[in-house]
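Data deposition worksheet. Section B asks for the primary sequence of the deposited chain exactly as it was used as input, without tags or linkers unless they were present during the calculation. Section C holds the resulting structure in token form. Section D is free text for depositor observations; keep each observation to a single sentence. Incomplete worksheets are returned to the depositor.
Section A, Depositor: J.P.
Section B:
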Amino acid sequence: MADSFQKLTEEAHQAVALAHEEARRLNQPYVGTEHLLLGLLGDSDGVAARSLRHLGIEPVSVRAAVEFIFGQGQGAVEGKTEMSPLAARVLKRAAHEARRLNHPHVDSGHLILALVREGGRGAAVLTILGVNQERLRMRLVADLGGQAG
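Section C:
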């Protein structure tokens, strides 16, 4: 995972940092894919957030869905939050997504592509909100400047 993390753009690093903040805000001792999704939407100018807005999904709707479905943890989290195994796989898969599109670095768009492919809570929230995953993939690939593989 360290190699994947080193290839992240500043935008993707920021999304991961925001995901850690979201986990702590929701009193969760781990960073799950739902927190990654919230982190990706934290930068409204990022590829992930722009692509979702293009499909009619607003960050406030995603936040409300995450909070309603998964709720708050029991008490404040102290110390460092760790990535869940699935969230860690999303980071690895994002590097794979970038390579498939012939991109040298991992951007927020690659992270959300990986999140959708890996499944889990973050992808479930998008499905509940009516996101067609194939349309999202096509939108992301177009926004990232690549060809669908």
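Section D:
Strands lie at 30-31, 82-83.
Residues 10-25 form the longest helix (16 residues).
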